Amino acid sequence: MLNNTGFNLWANDYDQTVKVSEESNTYPFAGYKEILNTIFNAVMQQKNTDVLDIGFGTGVLTNKLYENGHLIDGVDFSSQMISISQVKMPAANLMEWDITNGIPPVLQDKKYDFIVSTYTLHHLNDNEKVNFIRELLSHLKTGGQLLIGDISFETRDQLNTCRTDNLAHWDEDEFYFVFDELKASLEGNCEIEFHKVSHCGGVMVVTE
């Protein structure tokens, strides 16, 4: 797992790293653009919504929403990535925060039409993911959606196959989504759907 220092050092090259992986259809970023487009199109079904982006990075997705009139709050733990994104989105409310501590206190009373997160929550272990998702759901307005795009698999067997195929550069410090396990952990708390995009990525739509 990269710490925030690592992400600060990676910030200027992050988009190029993603592009190389996506264009070669390889782990970990195969399907990246389609995943972001899926989330973008879901938010764009409504106008001028309140959006919270968890781990907005260099603002690839969030900036498009910002340009289309959506009101953006965002948290990320890389000060360098925040600096890059703030130039693109000067009126957005972007803050440095470590999500292992949950939602920032300043946002505790806010609710959103959409909460989005792309390629961030895999830094939380499985129990932390479940607890954080439950917390995020409490910050949705009635009818709101939590949209998660990430390295993810329908089953543990699919994850293990991907790991075997990519042992040379598999990141053992990251915790990837296994949809059927996540769904079981959240049973009774919400509705959750999985839209597979690539062999190692997809979008989860979570509603209360």
UniProtKB/TrEMBL annotation:
Keywords from the named record: Transferase
Coiled coil ranges (UniProt) are none
Q: Where is the Methyltransferase domain?
A: 51-144
A GO term for molecular function: transferase activity
Work out whether the entry's keyword set contains Transferase: yes
The record ties this protein, via Pfam families, to: Methyltransf_25
The reply to whether Transferase figures as a keyword in the UniProt entry is yes
InterPro entries with a match to the protein in the record: Methyltransf_25, SAM-dependent_MTases_sf
Q: What is this protein called?
A: Methyltransferase domain-containing protein
Species this chain originates from: Jeotgalibacillus alimentarius
